[in-house]
Amino acid sequence: MDDKTTEIELRLLLEALFQKYCYDFRGYSMASIKRRLFQAREHFDCRTFSQLQDRVLHDPAVLSKLLSFLTVRVSELFRNPAYFLAIREKVIPYLRTYPSIKVWVAGCGAGEEVYSLAILFREEGLENRTMFYGTDISPEALEKAKAGVYKLDRIPLFTENHRQSGGKSSLSDYYSAAYQAAIFDKNLRRRVVFSDHSLATDGVFAEVQFISCRNVLIYFDRELQDRAVGLFKDSLARKGFLGLGFKESLRFNRHADTFTEFARSERIYQKRGDL
Amino acid sequence: MTATQAEAIVIGASAGALEALSILLPALPQDYPLPIMVVVHLSPDRESMLAELLRAKCSLDAREVEDKEPIQGGTIYFAPPDYHLLVEVDKHLSLSIEEPVHHSRPSIDVLFETAADAYGAALIGIVLTGASNDGSQGLKAVVSAGGTALIQRPDLAYIPTMPQAALDACPEAQVMSLEQITAYLQERSTPL
């Protein structure tokens, strides 16, 4: 599907995005980003990546559409219920001992994970002393996250996930349905800050007790993964928790020694207490 | 014409996969030098027993992939349920939860296209039984990169749709029975 020239053009396009707009995809896993850039190239009807580069450099409207190709992520409420069950049963008792709690969902996309955690913390009676940060690089995703509106046909899946995660109430308590959409309770957002933050270029912004970053690092190459996990290490309080996706691990990461396996099969790690 | 020495194998299968793979994979010897990456269409909401079942039958190590795992010879790598499996040019594996392709995540096309990119002519791509069109584009990519394309004989497959679709897209592929594919792979067992 390519040759040396395509490879060069592709790297130049990523460099252009960084230099002009500060979006840094240069450390992303190539196999995946290449596929998506080919899709974008087709969408914009460009013959080469140089043509696409020309358009994105001169037209910010092309940028925002291109970003939606590059940051595409699909999630669901209470995705992998076993993860949320482990938070409920193993992490929450620990967090309960803190007078105030900060939770960071890094790469929050359209906010599904943030709403899941906000619901879980409400059910566990911790909502009022918790602050949630949901961050992402995509302005479009952050707008969706703030709106908290999901397609109605996804609700049965969300409901089943919530039940399996040990949900103590009915998910329908948290949304109202209208016009093929489910709108989540604005009160759930009372303690939530959605904001722009890049794991590739930005730094630490708060000390937190729990970070959930699932299926985000898979899009990074190993060097960028090292940077992101380093950032998590510096953001976490002593004995703070880091939750990853079910097929992600710190095994290949430079900061592996900083963490211990807390809930092994649910991929929840704990920062060591002596650091 | 000098044939390029094979460096890796990718296999895609759907309905009937377990039976077909149970003939193919256990036949490979313990010192088999090539890595084998496999996508089987699975239900996304369940843990897959596939790697475990085949590990019990195979002399090669068989396991579900973890993100950023380096690729090693003599290992069978399975795409985990609900993740695409991709090969990076520097020969390690990565995962993604991008949209399903042909309604499938994992998708055979995604694995084959990225593996073709990474291995070029040194790749063997194999499409087995299944009721889908997934794998056709991927196998085409394997051929375009100079690699070898094998397809299970549609009339002998548990479900012929997927191998037939691959054959329609890739007429230059070699069509074989499972036994012939097994023998073909065994011949590649001479260490590089």
Automatic annotation (TrEMBL), chain A:
InterPro entries: Bact_Chemotaxis_MeTrfase, CheR_C, CheR_MeTrfase, CheR_N, SAM-dependent_MTases_sf. The keyword Transit peptide does not apply. Pfam families: CheR, CheR_N. GO terms for biological process: methylation. Residues 1-250 form the CheR-type methyltransferase domain. GO terms for molecular function: S-adenosylmethionine-dependent methyltransferase activity. Keywords: Methyltransferase, Transferase. It comes from the Bacteria. This is Protein-glutamate O-methyltransferase CheR. It comes from Nitrosococcus wardiae. The lineage of its organism: Bacteria, Pseudomonadati, Pseudomonadota, Gammaproteobacteria, Chromatiales.
Automatic annotation (TrEMBL), chain B:
Residues 2-185 form the CheB-type methylesterase domain. Keywords: Chemotaxis, Hydrolase. Pfam families: CheB_methylest (PF01339). GO terms for biological process: chemotaxis. It catalyses: [protein]-L-glutamate 5-O-methyl ester + H2O = L-glutamyl-[protein] + methanol + H(+). Its EC number is 3.1.1.61. The active site is at S14, H41, D134. The keyword Hydrolase applies. It is an enzyme of class 3 (hydrolase). This is protein-glutamate methylesterase. The lineage of its organism: Bacteria, Pseudomonadati, Pseudomonadota, Gammaproteobacteria, Chromatiales.
